[in-house]
């Protein structure tokens, strides 16, 4: 869809060259040639190339430059029409360029200004021009431009929706993988690891009850060593199923490391505070908290332009609470990006809640609450 939009934009950008070439050709072969119209025609071609072809990003991002560009087109076309009315062939292209170069309702004002060019050529029948060109052609150009703008908005809306669905689908797939890894880790911990721990304990007791000179004692010691080695390997596999920052650190330490890394990357003061009695949580809960910290800090770095960020992780009796506060420029909480939406979905899968408090020009507070039992 995006490639199709680019093709249509290219058609709109190249169309003026065709009409200008036709007008110049008719002028060369049917009129006494003067240098001024040809020089102006070439100048218009170069002007259009510089503002539209050479800098396509200016169409949507540089409104001031596009106003200058369109004013130059109007001035050049005015000069051409003063010299010869045959250059009226080029005027219809200005209707399209008004919608290409000018934003919003300014484009419609540009179309109205273009309609006045029909009155410039000498000997123009004002009545017929007003009736045909201004009374009919201009309203049709406005209508067609409005339809094209509506189609573009719909195409952009659909493209953004498709991108959103793609991101959410990928995020859901990743969440399913994380959930499955967490489930496997729980099963291994609750079955294999616990079973091996019991076996080791029983073998240690049996070894103590066996006489030192009993040959069975050596067998028991060997079995105990094998069981303990297997338990170490199982625990190592369980840790490998956890996200990188959580493999060799508790949740509070992983959060603190994330904050420190963000602070060093962005050069913005950031603090991390852990309150309450830290304890091991379910793997999926720890993953959700860590991802929430990463997303909140990423948003603060990309969008908030914050001067300071404070992160607080609170262990309470039955819940764990994450608070991320920044003093940035804020945003409208009703307009959520992909990251916040993914965070809410991830937390909601675990029965938790995400609260975002913000406003344009004010601080932003993100609160994540999850069951810690």
From TrEMBL:
Coiled coil stretches, renumbered: none
Transmembrane domains' residue ranges: 12-29, 36-52, 64-82, 94-120, 126-148
Pfam family, one: HATPase_c
SMART domains documented for this protein: HATPase_c
Superkingdom classification of source: Bacteria
Domain Histidine kinase/HSP90-like ATPase: 284-373
Keywords from the named record: Kinase, Membrane, Transferase, Transmembrane, Transmembrane helix, Two-component regulatory system
Protein name: Histidine kinase/HSP90-like ATPase domain-containing protein
UniProt source species: Lentzea cavernae
């Amino acid at each position: 869809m995006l490639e199709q939009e680019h093709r249509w934009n290219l058609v709109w950008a190249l169309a003026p060259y065709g009409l200008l070439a036709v007008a110049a050709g008719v002028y060369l072969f049917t009129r006494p040639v003067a240098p001024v119209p040809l020089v102006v025609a070439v100048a218009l071609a170069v002007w259009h190339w510089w503002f539209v072809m050479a800098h396509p990003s200016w169409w949507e991002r540089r409104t001031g430059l596009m106003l200058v560009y369109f004013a130059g087109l109007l001035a050049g076309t005015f000069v051409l029409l003063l010299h010869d009315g045959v250059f009226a062939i080029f005027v219809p292209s200005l209707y399209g360029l008004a919608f290409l170069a000018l934003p919003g309702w300014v484009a419609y004002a540009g179309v109205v200004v273009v309609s006045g060019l029909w009155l410039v050529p000498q000997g123009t029948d004002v009545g017929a021009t007003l009736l045909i060109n201004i009374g009919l052609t201009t309203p049709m150009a406005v209508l067609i431009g409005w339809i094209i703008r509506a189609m573009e908005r719909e195409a952009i809306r659909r493209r953004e929706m498709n991108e959103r669905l793609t991101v959410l689908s990928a995020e859901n797939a990743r969440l399913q993988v994380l959930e499955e890894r967490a489930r496997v880790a729980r099963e291994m911990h609750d079955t294999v690891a616990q079973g091996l721990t019991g076996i080791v304990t029983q073998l240690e007791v049996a070894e103590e009850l066996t006489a030192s000179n009993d040959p069975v004692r050596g067998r028991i010691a060997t079995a105990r060593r094998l069981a303990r080695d297997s338990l170490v390997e199982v625990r190592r596999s369980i840790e490998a199923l956890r996200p990188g920052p959580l493999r060799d650190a508790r949740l509070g330490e992983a959060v603190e490391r994330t904050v420190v890394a963000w602070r060093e990357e962005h050069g913005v003061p950031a603090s991390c505070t852990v309150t309450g009695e830290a304890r091991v949580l379910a793997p999926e809960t720890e993953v959700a908290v860590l991802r929430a910290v990463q997303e909140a800090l990423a948003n603060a770095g990309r969008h908030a332009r914050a001067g300071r960020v404070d992160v607080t992780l609170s262990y309470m009796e039955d819940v764990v609470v994450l608070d991320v506060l920044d003093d940035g420029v804020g945003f409208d909480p009703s307009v959520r990006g992909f990251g916040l939406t993914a965070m809410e979905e991830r937390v909601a899968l675990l029965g938790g809640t995400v609260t975002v408090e913000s406003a344009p020009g004010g601080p932003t507070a993100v609160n994540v609450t999850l069951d810690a039992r």
